Amino acid sequence: MDSAWIESATAWIAAHPIAAGALIFLIAFCDALVILGIFVPALPLLFAVGALVGLGHINGPYALAAAAAGAFLGDAVSYWVGRVWGPQLRQTWPFSRYPQWLDRGELMFRRRGAMSIVIARFVGAVRPFVPAIAGMLRMPLPRYLVPSLLASIGWAGLFLAPGWILGASYEAVAAVADRLAIVLGTLLAVLALVWAAVLYTWRWFAAHADNLLARGLSWTRKHPRLGRYAAALVDPNRPESPSLVMLAVCLLAISWAWFTLLATLLASGGPLAVDQAIHALMWSLRNPLADRLMAGLASLGDTAVLGTASAVTLVYLLWRRRWMAAAHWIAAIVFGLVLTALLETAIDMPRPPTAPAGFGFPSVAVTMTTVVFGFFAVLIARELPGRKRVWPYLVAGIATALIGFARLYLGAHWLSDLIGGSLFGILWLLALGLAYRSHVARSFWMRPLAWMFYGSFLAAALWHAPRAADGLLAKFEAAAPLRIVEAERWWNDGWGELPGRRDESDARRRWLLDMQVAGPLAPLQAALEAEGWRVQPQADWTATIGLLDDDIPAIRQPVLAATLDARAETLLMLHDAPPGADGGERLYALRLWPAPVALDDGSPLWLGSTQRLHLARPLDAAALWRPEPDDGEAFDRVRDALSDFAPIEQPHPDTGQPVLRLRTRSTTR
């Protein structure tokens, strides 16, 4: 579906809130129609509608009623189609071409009966077909209408709710945590993409394995000399032949992709333009809440975690005397690690400017995660029944994507390093998988092995990640400023060359940087504390989740961190403010960040922003401190509290707003 069409539809909804009900009705109606429902992107559209409801552009109950009515009438039309056509519906195109569309719905209907009407409304694959099946199988209309109505109302609420909540909290969250939302949203999108790629690749091969096997067998007969080397892979009498053919085809495809990437990088002599662009994007999204989370995820590729799961698996294989499996497991890990280290040494690829020594092409952590999880999937997948065989490969893809994305976010690697590591890891595990599957036909009970491998990995991850996150994060702190300014020049006129606002894409978050401090922050902090200000530690995940707790008093609700040049504020101080006209709670806030330049006398330089915050409670679901215009109240309060430092107040040449400049010394006053 063209994203431009979705954007224009949501823009029209925002501009025509009353007439939008007809469009919302049409979206839900088309999504419920048999056949047409497959092609209608109801989820993103209704998510966007929910966001517009939360932002106040559309009346919430009105949008909910329109979506529920559209879903109910769309299901009713599908029911009527099934009722009129009956069993002949199966002989009609496109069901004659794709009978599985109705087969899935009929299987669910026969198992669940009337409950399938409710369940199917929330399952996209069968949603447009179960009502038609109900009509085709002559389900009585009164028995059909009640669950359909309840399901339509519940579906409309569920599909609108995420966007509704996001829209209602956007003004409060976006001010300080927009980067976190983008990072988490991007991570979820990457995981969904990897999940879909693995799942649909597997399904395609599963559907075409027999055809590939027949073609391979025909080729071996036409080329007897070369074919005898491939005969073991395509022997129709061996049950492993379809799996071997799948591995062989994947091996050829991944080999081509790997060498193409390597040739492109060597020809360019360094990172590609896309590497530079994504690195810059990730650096701009650095956020204190996301930083620690990503550092913990990145540490899952460490030896302490992967090594523990690998050792537990090896011990089990040796205990069960699976000598061939144990030998291939050792080869997968040891030779994979050695080959990756050799490649990293042989290929001199410039590191990202944020990456310390030890990070290169390809990524060792991503390669070894791919090898360990991928080859474990090769070991156990064939022991699983039918479609469940894809699950170990899905887990491998998710684990690799998590670690790769986290390291990309931290700036440890270029995107090419991660793709190269993944491709090389897949290449190696496919080669070993072919060797293992070709020589080992004996199966074994995989359930205890799977529990031991995944369980030991999770246990090691939960123990290691909290301990390794801080150390790993320290390696990727923002670089110290390279530009040096004379202290006297800064005091006289150089201060006007520093930014006057935060560099944000959203104009509402380009807060004024109305304070500059040269020197240590301890004296300034002491002076403010003497005037009733208090320091708030940087809000961590525990404090952030506590925003959902209604029992926590407003005064104890944390103010979320904000960033300047990918750095969170070094000092955040708060002071109670008079209630607003609506009686709502308010705070004065002062945020101080390291400046992008350094002074030649060694004094640290800081940029600050004074604000007045209002406690917002979107949908009464969370408490969020939101910056609001204060007409200089917070600025005046800070200036008065720091009067003993002889501050100078002048308008900034770019913003025209007053900027407070002061110097501190290493001793308090």
TrEMBL record:
Record domain VTT: where: 40-163
SUPFAM superfamilies: Acid phosphatase/Vanadium-dependent haloperoxidase
Pfam families registered for this protein in UniProt: PAP2, VTT_dom
Domain Phosphatidic acid phosphatase type 2/haloperoxidase per the UniProt entry, residue ranges: 358-432
Family: Belongs to the DedA family.
Protein name as it appears in the record: Phosphatase PAP2 family protein
Organism expressing this protein natively: Marilutibacter maris
Membrane protein topology class: Multi-pass membrane protein
PANTHER family: INNER MEMBRANE PROTEIN DEDA-RELATED, INNER MEMBRANE PROTEIN YABI
